[in-house]
Specification:
Length: 943
C-alpha cells in the first residue's frame, strides 16, 4: 500500500512551517507518566478478526494541518491511511484469500505488539492510551473503571473533538449559531430539531431517569458517562492551552489564532443525550409517515372508489409481501404491527385539508437564503476561506436529510453457521452503513478495564462503550431495522373558552380536557466568518408538543379541525439504550448467544443485531415496540382517544407496555443470516413502503445461499460474496431478465434499440456490475449499458405505471416511495456520492407487474396489472418507447455534474466522497454499496 501522507513532507513544510511558529503549536508528545498495568485478557479470535473504517482514525486537525491540506494537499497522520485499503477491495475481491484479508482490513486483534507501538499517553495514572503504527487506533487500558472511561473520553477528544461539538449542537438545534448560517446548516437543524425538541430540563430528566430506573447498571452507566465527559473536557482544556486544538475553532471565529482568546465550551452529560438523539433517531428509528400514507390512500380511493382504491393501495403498501427476502427464513413467525381485520380509530384527513405545521418564524437577514457577505480574511487563512459555505454537513449527506429525502435504513450482515464453514466455526462479515464523512461519524477504539473488554466502533460523543465490534470470544454488529415504533395520532383541537376551534388552535382535547400545547422554541443567529461567508441572519424555530407527541400537520377530519402528532416510543428515552451497550461490553455478561440476545433486548432503538462466537451465529431484533390495541391500524393516523392509545401509556415520561422479549424476531443457529435492511421475519409487518419481491437483500441472500449449498465457507469467500454484491446493479441482476423477456417477445427492428438491447443483455450476462475496466481507469467495463439503464429506469417506471394510476395517484405513491435509488439517481441534494444504493425504489412493483403481464405466478400480486394495461404488446411498446428516449439522452444529461464531477462523468457521479465535516478533505473512491465500518470475524475458541 502507498505510504501515509504526513505533515512532515517537504512541500508541506515549505508552505506552512512559518505558520506553525506563529499560530498553533504542534500536538504534544506522548506522556511518559507511568500507569499501572491492567490485568491481561485472552484474545480467542487468534488473528482471525479484521476490521476497517475509512478514511482514517485521526479526525482532528490543527489550523496548520488544515492550511497544509488546502495549500498542498497533505494529510495529518492516520487521517487517510485506511482509505486505499477500503477502496482496494473493489479490484481485489475476486482473488481474495484468508491470507490476503489484511491487505484490505486492519488486524483487529486485542492489544498492540511491542514493535508496533507508535505512542503511549497516560492522561491519568490509572489508564494508558496506546496507539498502533498501522492505523493510530487508541487501545485504552485502565486499572479502574473511572480511569478506563476517562481514557475513552480523552481519546475521543484527541480524535473527534470538533465533530462531537458539531453533533451536540445539531442535537440541540443550534447548528447555525455554532457553525454558521449556510443554507444547508439551516436545513439540517430544521430537519433534526423537530424530531427531538427538548428543553435543558428534558435532557436532565433523561439522565436522571437512567440513573434511577435502571438499577445498578443505570447508576454505573451514568458514572461511566460522567468519566467519559471528564476525559473529553480534560483534552479540551489541554489542547486549548497547548494550542493544538482543532483549527475549525479558529476558522469559525471561536478562538483567535494569535492571542488564543476564546473558548471551547465544556461538555456535559446532557450533551450526550442530544448526540444520542441524532444518532438513534436517524439510524434506529422506525415508522412514522402516516400522514403521507393517508394522502396516497385517499388518492387511490378517489380514483377507484373506497373499496377498490383501498385494495390497490394495500397492494403497493405491501406490509407483508410473501415474496420479500427475510432474515429469519425458516418460517418462524413474529406477528407485529399488521393490518387488523377490522380497523377502528383510523382518522383520514378530508381531501385537500392537510397543511404542514410551520417551523420557522421571525426570519432576519440571510435566513432562508444563501446570501453571502465574505469577511476580509487574513492572508494566512485565505486558503481555508469559505470551507463551510455549503454547510458543515452538505445537504443530503446525513441519512434522511435533504430535500425530499427518505430516512435510509443502513448496513448489512452476512453470517454462516459452523455446519457450513470449512473450519466448523461460524463466520461473520458485517457492519453499519452510516454514510461517508471526514472524519467518520464513528471512531475505532479498544477498551480494556474492569467490567469492559471490547474493540470496535462507537459514535463520536457517546463512546463510553463499543457499540459494534468484538469481545474476547464473540463479535456483534447491527443493521437498521425500522420496525414501527412511531405512530401518528389525531388530536381534536379546541378552545379553552368553549368557542369554535380552528386549524390554528393551540389547545387540544386530552382525555376529555381542553389542554394547552406546550411551545418549544430555539432562536438562532449567525454572522459571517472565515469558514462560512453567509451573511448575518437569524430565525426562531418553534415546535408544539402534546401528550401524543410533536405536532407535524394540521387538517380537518369530517370537517373538524385536528392536529396530527408524531409519537416515537424512544422520545424522552434517547440514551436508555446505554444499558444494552454496557452489557455487550461486559465479558461476564455476554457468554453465549442467549446472553447476547438478552443484552441486545435492552437496546430500545430499532436495530437488527447479529452475533458470532466459535459455536453459534445468532440474531435479535431490538426496539421499544409499543403494544397497540388489536383493532388499531398503525400504518395510518390514529384517533387520540384512550381506546386507541398504546397499552399502559403514560405521557409524562412517554412510557407504555412493550412487546415481550420472545415476541421480537430472534434466532440462533440458522444455516445462515443476511440483512440489508430487509424484512426480518414472517408476520413482522413492514413499517413503510418498499419491502417487496425485489430488494437489495436479494443480492446477498442468493449469493450466501449458494455458498452454504456448496459448503466449506471461509472468511474470504463470504467477504467475496459481500464485495461482489457491493458493485452489482440490483436492476440489472434482478429485473433486466424480465424486461428483456417482454421486449424480445418479438424482434426489435429499430437498429438503435436493438443495439441497446444487446448491450444491456451483455452487461447482464457479465454480472450487471458498475466496476472499472482496471483499477484507476475511472471507466466502467459496460459503461454504455450502465448509462442506458440509468436513463431508462425512471422513464420505464413512469411509462409502465403512470397511464394506469393517473397523475394524482402516481404522484402520491412516488412521494411515499421514490422510483429509483441507483448511485446515479442519488445525484443532487438527496444524497450524491453516498455509497448506499438500491434500498428504496419500485423494484418490487416492476417485478410483480411484469410477471403478471407475462402470465407467471405471483404471490401477493398488485391489485391491477399496469404495464400496457395488462396487454403484453402494449407493455412491450411502452418499454421500448421509454428505451428509445433513454438511448437518445446524452451522458451529460444522465450525469449532470456537480461541484466535484464534470457533466457526463459516470464514474465520478457514482463515486464515494467522504463529506468533509472539518477542514480536511479526501479523494473520491470507487462506488461500493458496502458498510462504512466492517468486520470479518471467525473465532476458533471460546472461554
Amino acid at each position: 500500500m502507498p505510504p501515509r501522507t504526513v505533515m512532515s513532507r517537504a512541500a508541506a513544510a515549505a508552505a506552512v512551517l512559518a505558520l506553525g511558529a506563529t499560530l498553533l503549536a504542534a500536538a504534544p508528545q506522548a506522556s511518559t507518566a507511568a500507569a499501572a498495568e491492567p490485568a491481561p485478557v485472552t484474545d480467542y479470535c487468534q488473528g482471525q478478526c479484521d476490521d476497517i473504517l475509512p478514511p482514517g482514525e485521526n479526525g482532528n486537525a490543527t489550523l496548520v494541518e488544515i492550511l497544509g491540506n488546502k495549500t498542498v494537499g497533505t494529510h495529518p497522520a492516520h487521517s487517510d491511511d485506511q482509505l486505499d485499503r477500503y477502496n482496494g477491495l473493489v479490484a481485489g475481491y475476486s482473488g481474495l484469500t484468508d491470507q490476503k484479508l489484511t491487505d484490505f482490513f486492519n488486524d483487529a486483534s486485542f492489544g498492540v505488539p511491542a514493535d508496533q507501538v507508535e505512542s503511549v499517553t497516560s492522561p491519568r495514572d490509572d489508564v494508558t492510551i496506546t496507539r498502533d503504527k498501522a492505523s493510530g487506533v487508541p487501545h485504552i487500558k485502565g486499572t479502574t473503571r473511572y480511569g478506563t472511561e476517562f481514557g475513552a473520553g480523552y481519546a475521543a477528544g484527541q480524535d473527534r473533538l470538533w465533530l462531537m461539538d458539531l453533533f451536540r449542537h445539531i442535537g440541540r438545534g443550534e447548528l447555525t449559531s455554532f457553525a454558521g448560517g449556510a443554507l444547508a446548516n439551516q436545513g439540517l437543524e430544521q430537519q433534526f430539531w423537530p424530531q427531538a425538541p427538548y428543553t435543558e430540563a428534558d435532557l436532565e430528566a433523561q439522565v436522571e431517569y437512567i440513573r434511577t430506573h435502571e438499577g445498578e447498571r443505570g447508576e454505573q452507566a451514568m458514572a461511566d458517562a460522567q468519566a467519559y465527559v471528564d476525559g473529553i473536557n480534560a483534552y479540551r482544556e489541554k489542547s486549548k492551552n497547548g494550542r493544538y486544538f482543532p483549527g475549525e475553532y479558529v476558522l469559525t471565529g471561536k478562538i483567535d489564532a494569535i492571542t488564543n482568546i476564546g473558548e471551547i465550551q465544556p461538555f456535559k452529560l446532557t450533551d450526550l443525550i442530544s448526540i444520542a438523539s441524532v444518532v438513534g433517531g436517524q439510524f434506529g428509528g422506525g415508522g412514522g409517515g402516516e400522514v403521507q400514507a393517508a394522502l396516497s390512500l385517499l388518492a387511490a380511493q378517489q380514483k377507484y372508489g373506497v373499496a377498490e382504491g383501498t385494495k390497490v393501495w394495500e397492494s403497493f403498501r405491501q406490509r407483508e409481501d410473501p415474496e420479500a427476502v427475510l432474515t429469519i427464513h425458516d418460517g418462524t413467525a413474529f406477528p407485529y404491527a399488521g393490518k387488523p381485520g377490522q380497523a377502528h380509530g383510523t382518522a383520514l384527513p378530508d381531501p385537500g385539508s392537510v397543511t404542514a405545521e410551520p417551523l420557522i418564524y421571525d426570519r432576519t437577514g440571510s435566513a432562508g437564503t444563501d446570501r453571502k457577505a465574505p469577511v476580509k480574511a487574513p492572508a494566512r487563512l485565505k486558503k481555508a476561506q469559505g470551507i463551510y459555505d455549503d454547510g458543515v454537513i452538505p445537504e443530503g449527506s446525513l441519512p434522511g436529510s435533504g430535500s425530499g429525502a427518505q430516512k435510509r435504513g443502513m448496513s448489512n450482515a452476512l453470517l454462516v453457521s459452523g455446519k457450513h464453514t470449512a473450519s466448523g466455526n461460524p463466520i461473520a462479515v458485517f457492519g453499519p452503513q452510516t454514510g461517508y464523512f471526514a472524519p467518520q461519524l464513528m471512531m475505532l477504539q479498544e477498551l480494556q478495564g474492569p467490567g469492559i473488554s471490547a474493540r470496535g466502533v462507537s459514535f463520536a460523543g457517546v463512546g463510553m462503550y463499543i457499540q459494534m465490534g468484538r469481545g474476547q470470544d464473540y463479535a456483534w454488529s447491527a443493521t437498521s431495522a425500522a420496525q414501527d415504533i412511531t405512530d401518528t395520532y389525531t388530536v381534536d383541537l379546541c378552545e379553552p373558552d368553549g368557542s369554535t376551534p380552528t386549524k390554528d388552535s393551540t389547545h387540544y382535547l386530552y382525555r376529555g380536557t381542553c389542554t394547552a400545547m406546550e411551545t418549544l422554541e430555539r432562536t438562532n443567529s449567525w454572522k459571517p466568518t472565515v469558514a462560512d461567508s453567509t451573511a448575518a441572519g437569524s430565525y426562531r424555530m418553534q415546535a408544539r408538543r402534546t401528550n401524543y407527541g410533536i405536532v407535524t400537520h394540521r387538517a380537518t377530519v369530517d370537517g373538524r379541525p385536528v392536529a396530527y402528532t408524531s409519537l416515537r416510543s424512544t422520545y424522552r428515552h434517547e440514551a436508555d439504550s446505554i444499558i444494552g451497550f454496557q452489557m455487550l461490553n461486559d465479558p461476564s455478561y455476554v457468554t453465549d448467544a442467549a446472553s447476547f440476545q438478552r443484552a441486545a433486548s435492552s437496546i430500545d432503538y430499532a436495530f437488527n443485531w447479529f452475533y458470532a462466537d466459535s459455536r453459534t451465529a445468532a440474531y435479535y431484533n431490538s426496539g421499544l415496540n409499543p403494544v397497540r390495541p388489536a383493532d388499531v391500524d398503525p400504518a395510518l393516523p390514529i384517533r387520540a382517544e384512550r381506546a386507541y392509545e398504546w397499552q399502559d401509556f403514560d405521557p409524562a415520561a412517554n412510557t407504555a407496555a412493550y412487546t415481550a422479549f420472545a415476541a421480537h424476531p430472534n434466532s440462533s443457529g440458522q444455516d445462515y443470516y443476511i440483512s440489508w435492511n430487509n424484512r426480518q421475519a414472517k408476520g413482522y409487518a413492514a413499517a413503510g413502503f418498499g419491502l417487496s419481491a425485489v430488494h437489495r437483500g436479494d443480492l446477498l441472500d442468493q449469493r450466501v445461499a449458494k455458498l452454504v449449498e456448496d459448503g466449506g465457507v471461509t472468511r474470504a469467500s463470504l467477504t467475496r460474496a459481500m464485495a461482489e454484491a457491493a458493485v452489482t446493479d440490483l436492476r440489472g441482476e434482478q429485473l433486466l431478465p424480465e424486461l428483456l423477456k417482454v421486449i424480445r417477445a418479438k424482434p426489435v427492428t429499430d437498429p438503435a434499440l436493438n443495439a441497446a438491447v444487446q448491450q444491456l443483455d451483455s452487461w447482464r450476462a457479465a454480472g450487471s456490475q458498475r466496476k472499472e475496466t482496471s483499477p484507476g481507469s475511472h471507466t466502467y467495463t459496460h459503461a454504455d449499458a450502465v448509462r442506458i439503464m440509468d436513463a431508462w429506469w425512471p422513464k420505464l417506471v413512469e411509462a409502465e405505471f403512470r397511464p394506469g394510476l393517473g397523475d394524482d395517484l402516481y404522484g402520491a405513491l412516488t412521494t411515499s416511495l421514490a422510483t429509483d435509488e441507483s448511485p446515479a439517481a442519488s445525484h443532487g441534494p438527496s444524497g450524491a456520492h453516498s455509497g448506499s444504493a438500491f434500498q428504496y425504489g419500485w423494484w418490487g412493483f416492476v417485478d410483480k407487474d411484469l410477471r403478471q403481464v407475462l402470465g407467471q405466478s405471483v404471490k401477493g400480486p398488485l391489485a391491477r396489472t399496469y404495464c400496457g394495461g395488462g396487454d403484453a404488446d402494449g407493455c412491450r411498446d411502452a418499454l421500448l418507447g421509454a428505451l428509445k428516449q433513454a438511448v437518445a439522452e446524452p451522458a451529460t444529461a444522465v450525469y449532470p455534474g456537480d461541484g466535484t464531477c464534470k457533466a457526463g462523468d459516470q464514474w465520478c457521479t457514482d463515486s464515494i466522497i467522504h463529506r468533509a465535516l472539518g477542514g480536511i478533505t479526501q479523494k473520491a473512491i470507487h462506488w461500493q454499496n458496502r458498510p462504512t465500518y466492517q468486520q470479518v470475524v471467525e473465532f476458533s475458541a471460546h472461554r
